[in-house]
Specification:
elongated, mainly alpha, about 0% strand
């Protein structure tokens, strides 16, 4: 009963704070709140699926680099991008604004202050340090490059000290993919040859075992029969 009362009280607080936020006349503050919500939701969606930034770019009409830069905090969300994302998520801008304000109200009621939006982990911090690399990777889908290669390339690329121009990253990516593909083909050939060698060795061993078994059992091989015939004629 106490727990239910606490939940009910919490909902009332959220509604009161939400109504207060909705009533604010500070348009810049409202846009900032919406922008934080859009960025946080965008980060969460892109983390769930590789190449999602490119999918969103095609659906919204913005470039993949723009989507990636917004996600990583290098560009402001902006009204046009927020409205495009609202349409992408199947809602109006008013619905998006309401969700953003309700999210903020809930956090204020729970924590007393609004936590920083979309706190990143180490990989996200690295992405912020290399925005051009992030933009390039956002445009790479599994249709263009294997996921295993992209994961390996990103892991190594994140170790560089300075970012590079986009066209330099693209050239490096293509060169590394060629090397990766050649190495994979070499490994497949070596594995195939190794398998053939093992099969041939097993066949020879089996053949020798069969001959040995035949001689032990007194069964003449064609060569032994021919030698026996020669000896008989000579006698």
């Amino acid at each position: 009963m106490v727990s239910e009362n606490c939940v009910a009280a919490g909902k009332i607080i959220v509604l009161i704070i939400g109504a207060s936020l909705m009533a604010t006349q500070d348009q810049l503050e409202r846009k900032r709140i919406v922008g934080d919500y859009v960025r946080e939701r965008l980060v969460a969606e892109c983390r769930q699926k590789w190449g999602q930034a490119l999918v969103i770019a095609k659906r919204t009409g913005f470039s993949a680099a723009h989507v990636s830069n917004v996600k990583d905090g290098h560009r402001n969300v902006g009204d046009s991008f927020a409205m495009a994302m609202a349409d992408y998520w199947g809602m109006t801008y008013s619905d998006l604004e309401r969700l953003a304000l309700e999210r903020l109200a809930e956090r204020l009621a729970r924590y007393g202050v609004a936590p920083a939006a979309a706190q990143g982990d180490e990989s996200q911090a690295a992405a912020d340090r290399l925005p051009q690399l992030t933009a390039v990777l956002a445009e790479c889908t599994e249709d263009l490059y294997p996921r295993a290669f992209l994961a390996e390339y990103e892991r190594r690329a994140r170790t560089v000290e300075r970012d590079r121009p986009k066209n330099v990253w693209l050239g490096d990516l293509e060169a590394k993919y060629w090397e990766w593909r050649e190495e994979r083909q070499k490994q497949l050939v070596e594995a195939s040859l190794s398998g053939m060698t093992r099969d041939a060795s097993a066949s020879v061993t089996n053949a020798k075992s069969s001959i040995g078994a035949s001689q032990s059992s007194g069964v003449r091989t064609p060569k032994a029969a021919k030698n026996a015939t020669k000896r008989a004629k000579a006698g």
